[in-house]
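User: Here's a protein and a ligand (nicotinamide-adenine-dinucleotide). What would the complex look like?
Assistant: Let me lay out the input and then the predicted complex.
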Amino acid sequence: MAVEQTFSGDHGQQNNPLHAAQQLMYDACTRLGLAPGVYEILKEPARVFTVSIPVKLDSGEVQTFIGYRSQHTDITGPCKGGIRFHPEVTVDEVKALSIWMTIKCNVVGLPYGGGKGAVICNPKKLSKGELERLSRGYMRAIAPYIGPDKDIPGPDMYTNPQVMGWMLDEYSRIAGCNAPGVITGKPIVAGGSLGRTEATARGISFVVREAAKELGIDLTEATAVVQGYGNAGSIAARLLHEMGVKIIGVSDSTGAIYNREGLDPLAVAEHKAANGTVTGFPGATCIDPDDLLTAECDVLIPAAFENVITRANATRIRARLIAEAANGPTTPEADEILYRRGILVVPDILANAGGVTVSYFEWVQNLQNFYWSEEEVNRRLEMIMVDAFAKTYAMSAEHKVSMRTAAYMVALDRIGRAMAARGWV
Ligand code: NAD
């Protein structure tokens, strides 16, 4: 079909994240037999801004930082996606991440399109005052192009509720009113949502429960291994433990621990908070972090960083189910190997979508100026995650494709129908 001609020429640049995102969209559009215009419209973001941000440093000198904001599409609603502060971030990475946000929002059926922002900087080298001036400067630069009904940023790598608070304040000064709906991931007192801190992990626990039902795994008899013991990993371990799963191994950047009889995830989190590491936890054995990933278990949760399941270890993975809390933990080659081996992989764009879903709830609460209980947030999150899992699982069974391809298909099917309804294709 015509889409192929549009894409050809981009093949072969496997390491470019933008080309990887385009390839996945292209494959899903082709499998669904969508009108060629769908891919043609989506292959590049609708708008990408580059901004320069002069910041007065504590020394009195002025340094100009470069920032980006990519608005991929607003076909299914205002753009949504975080802002990362990172010294090596590139514009192609920001564009790719905005595409991934479009797909993620549409897998779970949120009324959003994708966006992403970044500032090239090393936040660890900035004082608190410099970080605040940089955050406010970035918001001043992008304020004309964003807003609660246009594009709603949130936190990402090396940005946090405090940075969101400064950005909210800067935008509100420009707008001349308190405008909490412009940004999510805010401190609760400034309009944040209850349940946001646990949302990603809670979403993981729901998809693990649904996948276990499909695979006939009894969670009260099941074992799990969690790589990465930060926000997503440690809370996912606790929630799975509450469902009756035995957590037999966990790791962080300092090492890995294992106990076949099970670990108490809360006690491990307290040990890590007190000692800065999971290692040395009483009753557990220290093991090679590489061996942790290939340990025999029912559920494996990569919750650290990207490209950890590769061609080199995919043949040795002994989990029955993998739920990707981290973004991009499985390489494309590993994905194929796992699919052929019959290991069910719940992909990042579905498994960790609990985070953006509760960000959506935060925005809804801000727009209504009516705030929900944590139970209400969790109940609605469960409904959305269960429904998205079921749709993706059914798509995967119907088309005999991996859950990752199926998730792209679920998202692109919705986007394609929205484009047709509005006469874009
Ligand atoms: P975090 O910084 O809170 O935790 C990361 C953890 O990974 C830390 O415990 C760190 O020690 C560990 N780690 C680092 N290097 C490691 C290594 N070599 N081996 C094992 N562990 C290692 O981050 P987070 O918010 O939990 O995010 C983790 C992943 O989940 C990231 O890929 C992130 O993009 C993704 N994610 C998080 C959210 C969220 O809401 N927190 C939402 C979507 C996706």
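Summary: The chain has three domains: 1-43, 44-178, 198-351.
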